[in-house]
Amino acid sequence: MKMKRFVAAAIAAVSCLSFAACGSDTASKDENVIHIMSSGDSSANMERALVDEYNKTADVKAVLDLVTSADYQNKLQTVMSNPKSDSAPDIFFNWADALMIQYARADVSAPLDEYMEKDPELKDNFLPSILDAAKVDGKYYGIPESSPLCCSTTRRCSLTTASKPRPPSTSSAMHARS
Fold it and tell me: What is the CA radius of gyration of the chain?
């Protein structure tokens, strides 16, 4: 079961990587690049490997922006204080806590229910109690990465920018892209 959860988390991470970068109020953000903010801890090598694998075939490239673990939460709060700025990540790792609720209710984070419904296998790889920790007002705003719950979260504008490619709707479709 542990391996299934790991594989599901890896699939979720790669799936999230396909969300396109959203436009900002300035013209300097590269629309062919998405930025993923993560802590530079022990999982950084796995995240680098996933990003490298994704980038081999992706039109929209992913960049992994690592922040030291000690500074991560403060840095995330700082850059997300203006989610449309060039410094705000398109995807970020977050805890299922007050910040997740704040970002969801401020319409900064995007609900992921639509994508999870299209890939029930992904959702079925998690215990409901673990997955439900990423729910805010009845909608999922993250995919578990580990326990205690950390989630990959996507900014709403990354999903709603019409000119960007949509993420794959199933894990099979995701593997077909790679």
Answer: 15
